[in-house]
Amino acid sequence: MNFKHGRNRLVLLFPLVVIVIKFPKIFLRDAIKSFWYSVKRRDFINLIKELTLPIEADEIKFSLFQGISENLREFKCSGFLFQKTYFSLFGLLNIQKYGKPVSETVDVWHILYSIATEEQKDLLMKDIHHLSQNNNFCIDDGILKLCDYGGKKTKKVVSELGEDFFRKASLIVLKNR
């Protein structure tokens, strides 16, 4: 078993049983501090406005629910290019298929960017957080797949880039392992 953590989630890797378990990080202390700061300033109108904003725009909700939201998006997302998420317990726990990590000697971002057209480069830049980090990718059945795709923009960007784009990238990544 290995352990990894990202910005909003903790991940346990079980390569022998070929699963990954993802837990959201819940920053209760940060949420309480933000809430208390608004209360201290007697800024109730702004506090109410903030609580009606989307998760990404509100510090209190972001602290509490961003990891849960990412887990739920991964569970709802399917496709050839995404590592399969088998189960989600309301976003509090996700079970995903384990994929072999991409070698650190291979720069996936450089490969993606080098084979992209100008239009595709613009798309890549829209989700640079997920697409520029090797640890967000894995190899499964000889195909380069995203194993961290809970971001709000990720599915749209990957879908627009298309299967052929990632098949081509897969060939280059596998050749350079």
Quick structural gist:
The chain is an alpha+beta fold and 177 residues long.
Features:
177 residues, alpha+beta, 2 domains, three-stranded antiparallel β-sheet, globular
Tell me what portion of residues adopts beta-strand conformation: 15-25%
User: How many structural domains can be distinguished in the coordinates?
Assistant: 2
The arrangement of helices and strands along the chain is EEEHHHEEEHHHEEHH
Considering DSSP H and I runs of 4 or more, what fraction of the residues is helical? 40-55%
**Uncertain segments of ≥5 residues (pLDDT<50)?**
none
The total strand number stands at: 8
Name the shape in a single word. Answer: globular
Number of contiguous helices: 8
Name the strands of the widest sheet in spatial order. 1-2-3-5-4
Q: Mean pLDDT, nearest integer?
A: 86
Largest sheet: 5 strands, antiparallel
**Structural class of the secondary elements?**
alpha+beta
Distance between the amino and carboxyl termini: 23 Å
Radius of gyration: 18 Å
Structure description:
By secondary structure, this protein is an alpha+beta fold. It has two domains: 2-80 and 84-96, no CATH class; 100-175, no CATH class. The protein has eight helices and eight strands. Strand 1 (2-5) and strand 2 (9-14) form a beta hairpin. It is globular. It starts with a strand and ends with a helix. The mean pLDDT is 86.
